[in-house]
Amino acid sequence: MQSERPKEIYADPEARRILQFLLRNITVVISPQALPTDEVTYPQLQSVLGEHATEADAILTHMAAAGVLVETLADKVPACPECNSKQISTRYLCSQCYAVDINRSFLFEHLKCGKVASDDTFRKGSEYICPKCQTVLHNFGVEFRAIGAWYKCNRCNNSFNATIQSHFCRPKHHQFTPDRARLIPIYEYKINTRILNEIRNQVLVYGDLISFLEDCGLNVIAPHTLTGKSESRTFDLAISSKGRWGAQRTIVMDIINLDSAIGADYVREFATKVRDSRPSVSYLVAIPRLTDEAREASRNLKMTVVEAASMKEAMSSIRDLPVIKELIT
């Protein structure tokens, strides 16, 4: 059955690397990491994408929109309502004058005599002694316990048991209460197992064929865009080489890999791209085969088509093409 996903998602080199990584690790979930620098990164893709790792968020979003990845909410992080920065700190403020210069202590209770006071009042050197009955306390949780926190403001001397919380935007110095914070969703991703066969067929076509051609010593660019008379035209791959007299020669290929025979529309679309962009040589690789109508269309349009029942058979046929044999030898 023909894929409804844009073919570009399988031709895009970064998306293809991610899918190849996930095909080798089907159960892996690509998880986000929010850094203090405001970035959302995906550490698992660092080695997969290399210099493009900083673009992982946009690439994954695009792949999820195309349906090859499943997107799941991983977290929501607070952001500044004024500038959208996620570089924010939480501040604990005095409940009376809203100053940040506060000290915290714990309230201890001596269970026997009922004395409640701050922990520093109980502490005498290395021991804890009840300030009321002067009993030396040894067993925390048995003789005495913590019953809460206590705060004191160094600016207004206010004592209180609960702070006011506020967020502070570090880049722009905006201060705002939690109820004004923007909540930014960040997502984790996994391969869409419902279309696993399609992904395997599409991705491995590119991966295996590109590796095969590169192993033959050819300079492969995938995908490759040529400037046409009417618009830019993108082909699944191109082989760049020098012609007999030193001129640059570009050999382009499109690979169509479906579950059933490939129709004439694919041939006509390929012919339109070729005639508009005028590559040196062009091949349409059709797996598993063309329909009779498509085969007739390719003859009428003078398009060279490589028909093969499998990718392995296609690679063998491509290697035997005169122009490829000439480059290899």
What descriptive keywords fit this protein?
3 domains, alpha+beta, four-stranded antiparallel β-sheet, 329 residues, Trna Endonuclease, Chain: A, domain 1
- Provide the CATH top-level class of the largest domain: Alpha Beta
* Relative strand content: 25-35%
CATH topology of the largest domain: Trna Endonuclease, Chain: A, domain 1
Can you summarize the main beta sheet? 5 strands, mixed
Estimate the global geometry from the Cα principal axes.
Answer: elongated
Q: Give the uncertain stretches in residue-range form.
A: none
The percent of residues in helical segments reads 25-40%
The value of Rg in angstroms is: 33 Å
Class from helix and strand fractions: alpha+beta
Total beta-strand segments: 21
DSSP summary: helix tally? 10
Distance between the termini: 39 Å
Give me the side-by-side strand order of the main sheet.
15-18-19-20-21
